[in-house]
Design a protein that fits this description.
This protein is mainly alpha-helical. The protein has one domain. The protein contains 20 helices and 4 strands. The strands form 2 sheets. A two-stranded antiparallel sheet has the order 1-4. Strands 2-3 form a two-stranded antiparallel ribbon. The longest helix has 26 residues.
Length: 434
C-alpha cells in the first residue's frame, strides 16, 4: 500500500485514507439519485441510468486513483448533465443516443487536448474573470432547473416566469427538503444533501405523494439494474451530422474548464502542488477524466468530471488514490439500492440542485468588477446560461463579448490569440443554430 500510493511520503495512513473515502462518498452520493433523475428527463430508462451513473463513477474514479494517485472522485458532472438533457435533447430536439455520441467524441477531443499542448493554450487564453463566470452561470442554470422541478417557479404566458403553486404537496415537500438541506449544511453535517433526499422521499411516502414500498425488494435487491438499454447505444454519426460546433465543442470546453478549476482547487487544499505551482500528475488526471468520459458515453450517462465535493475527504486527511478507491467501492455497493433510487421523486432531488447551484456561486469573487471590459463578458456568461436555458449560449455570449469589448475599447493586447479562434467558433455556432 505504502509503495503503491506513497502514503508515508504524503503524510497519511491506510486508516486515514479509508475514513476520507467514506466522507467523500457520503458528501457526493446525492449524484446517484440526482443524475438518473435528470437523464430520465432526456428519455433514458431510469434503471439503466442508475447503473450507468454508478458504473461510470466507479470506472473513472479508479482511473483517477491508480493513474494519478489523487484523492479525487470522478462522476457525472452537474451542469454537464443539465446541458445533456435540457439543451441537447430537449432544447435541440435530439435523441439521447445522439447526445451520448457527442459525449464520446468530446472525450476523444479532451484526450487529444490533454496529450498535446493545445490544452495549455486554451487554458492560458481564457481570462480569470471568464473562468470564474463559467461555474457561476452553470450554478444559476442548475438552481433554475431545481426551482422548476420543485414547482417553486413555473411558466407564465404574460411574464414568461412566475411563482408556482406553493400549496401543491410536491412543492411543499421540496421546500421542506430545501430548508432541511440548508440547515444541515449550515451546521456542517456530513451528507446533508443525501439526508435531505431520503427524508423528503420518506415524507412523500407518508403523505401519499409517492407509493409506499410493498416489500424489502422494493428498496434493496441483488438483481442488479441492467445496462442493456444504454450500453453502446451512442449515435456517433448522428452527433457528427448535427455539427461539431453545436454540442461537441461545448461539451469539450465545459469539461476542460470544469476539470481544470476543480483539480487545481483540490490539489491546493491537499498540498499536492509543487513549489512552482504545477501539480505533479495533472496531465494524468486529465487523461483519467477523458477516458472516463468516453466510458461514460459507452455505459449510457453524461460526461464525468472531477468533483469539488472531494474536498470533504481531503479535509479528513485524504491525500492519495486510496481515498478514491474507498469511495469507488462504496459507489459499487450502492448498486443493490437501485430499487430505492428508482423510487426517489423529482421534488426530493430538486433541493439538491438548488443547493449545488448556490455553492457554485462562490467563484464570482474571482471576477474583476473594477474593470468593465472584464465585468460585462462575465455578466453575459452568467446571465446567458439560465435565461437562454443553455450553457452553450452563455459560453458563446461571454467569449464573443470579451473579444469584441476588449478589441473595440483599444485593449486588444489583453486578448490571447486563441480567444479569437474560440470567439469565431462560437459565432459560427450561433449562425448554424439560427
Amino acid at each position: 500500500m505504502d509503495g503503491l500510493f506513497k502514503l508515508t511520503e504524503r503524510g497519511t495512513s491506510v486508516k486515514t485514507e479509508i475514513l476520507a473515502g467514506f466522507t467523500t462518498f457520503i458528501t457526493l452520493s446525492y449524484i446517484i439519485f440526482v443524475n438518473p433523475s435528470i437523464l430520465a428527463d432526456a428519455g433514458i430508462p431510469k434503471e439503466a441510468a442508475i447503473a450507468a451513473t454508478i458504473l461510470a463513477s466507479v470506472f473513472a474514479t479508479l482511473l483517477m486513483a491508480f493513474f494519478a494517485n489523487y484523492p479525487i472522485v470522478v462522476a457525472p458532472g452537474m451542469g454537464l448533465n443539465a446541458f445533456f438533457t435540457y439543451t441537447v435533447v430537449l432544447g435541440f430536439g435530439l435523441h439521447w443516443t445522439v447526445a451520448l455520441g457527442a459525449v464520446f467524441i468530446s472525450g476523444i477531443l479532451f484526450f487529444i487536448l490533454t496529450v498535446t499542448t493545445i490544452r495549455t493554450y486554451i487554458i492560458d487564453a481564457v481570462p480569470p474573470s471568464l473562468r470564474a463566470a463559467i461555474p457561476v452561470g452553470i450554478g444559476l442554470f442548475i438552481a433554475f432547473i431545481g426551482l422548476q422541478n420543485a414547482g417553486i417557479v413555473q411558466g407564465d404566458p404574460s411574464t414568461l416566469l412566475t411563482l408556482g403553486d406553493l400549496t401543491q404537496t410536491g412543492t411543499i415537500l421540496a421546500i421542506f427538503g430545501l430548508l432541511l438541506a440548508g440547515i444541515l449544511m449550515a451546521r456542517a453535517v456530513k451528507g446533508a444533501l443525501i439526508i435531505s433526499i431520503l427524508v423528503t422521499t420518506a415524507l412523500g411516502m407518508v403523505v401519499g405523494a409517492i407509493p409506499l414500498p410493498q416489500s424489502l425488494g422494493d428498496l434493496v435487491s441483488l438483481d442488479l439494474p441492467s445496462l442493456a438499454p444504454t450500453f453502446g447505444k451512442m449515435d456517433l454519426q448522428g452527433a457528427l451530422a448535427f455539427g461539431v460546433l453545436n454540442i461537441i465543442f461545448t461539451f469539450t470546453m465545459v469539461e476542460l474548464f470544469d476539470n481544470m478549476g476543480t483539480l487545481m482547487g483540490l490539489l491546493r487544499k491537499a498540498n499536492l502542488m509543487k513549489d512552482e505551482g504545477h501539480p505533479p500528475e495533472l496531465g494524468r488526471a486529465f487523461v483519467a477524466d477523458s477516458l472516463g468520459t468516453m466510458a461514460s458515453a459507452v455505459l449510457g450517462t453524461s460526461t464525468v468530471t472531477s468533483y469539488i465535493e472531494s474536498a470533504s475527504g481531503v479535509a479528513e486527511g485524504g491525500r492519495t488514490g486510496l481515498t478514491a478507491i474507498t469511495a469507488a467501492v462504496l459507489f459499487l455497493a450502492a448498486l443493490i439500492f437501485a430499487p430505492l433510487i428508482g423510487l426517489v421523486p423529482g421534488f426530493a432531488t430538486a433541493p439538491a440542485l438548488i443547493i449545488v447551484g448556490a455553492l457554485m456561486l462562490t467563484e464570482i469573487v474571482h471576477v474583476d468588477f473594477k474593470d468593465f471590459t472584464e465585468t460585462l463578458p462575465a455578466f453575459l456568461t452568467i446571465i446567458g446560461m439560465p435565461l437562454t436555458y443553455s450553457i452553450a449560449t452563455g459560453l458563446g455570449l461571454g467569449f464573443i463579448g470579451y473579444t469584441l469589448v476588449k478589441l473595440f475599447s483599444g485593449r486588444w493586447r489583453d486578448i490571447h490569440w486563441m480567444m479569437y479562434i474560440i470567439a469565431i467558433l462560437f459565432v459560427i455556432n450561433f449562425v448554424l443554430r439560427a
